[in-house]
Structures are given as C-alpha cells and as structure tokens.
Amino acid sequence: MSQTAQQWLPVAISILVIIAIALLQAQSKTIAAVTATMPLTIPLAMWIVYAANRNDQAALTDFAGSLLVGVIATLIFAVALWLAARAGLGLVPMLATAYLAWAAALGVYLALR
What's the predicted TM-score (pTM) here? Predict the structure, then answer.
C-alpha cells in the first residue's frame, strides 16, 4: 500500500464512522453510542505507528501501553459526561465538565509518573 493511502485511509474511515453515527442516531441512540465508542481509533492509530516503526517493537509496545492511560481517562470522561447530563447541565457545561475530568485524570497520572 502506498504511503499516501496509509496516511489517508484512517482519515477516510474516521469520516465514514462519523457519518454512520449521524445517520444511526435517528434510528437508535444505543447503536449510535456503541458505534461512537467502538475501538476504531486505537487500531487506526496503531496502524499509523506500525507504519512509521515497522522494525521497532519497543515503539509499538510503548505506544500500546500508553493507550491504557488514554482509555482510563476516556472512561472518566464518559462517566463525568453522564453525571453532568443526569444533573441537567446543557451541552457546553456537560462537555466542559467531562473534559476537566479527563484532564484531571491525565494530570494525576503524569504527577504520579
């Protein structure tokens, strides 16, 4: 596969997923939410890192390990978003709360590291 295709294919797939979510949400909020949270960006990112570091297993291992930090912070983001929605906040305050929780989780990790 050409270098150009390797760079643009993940972008194209991401765009298709966003379009799918926009269309699915009219039919089922649950299916749209599951589609939004399916592990798509992780394999795409791993593919990009692999393409750049084919013979460097340590780089792939470090990247894969670092994904755990992001996944935990994203879980905290989702929980904060849900709690903010249950509290009756509007979209912008909900997102602000969730991003603050995400940033705090990453900050704690970096401080403990």
Answer: 0.72
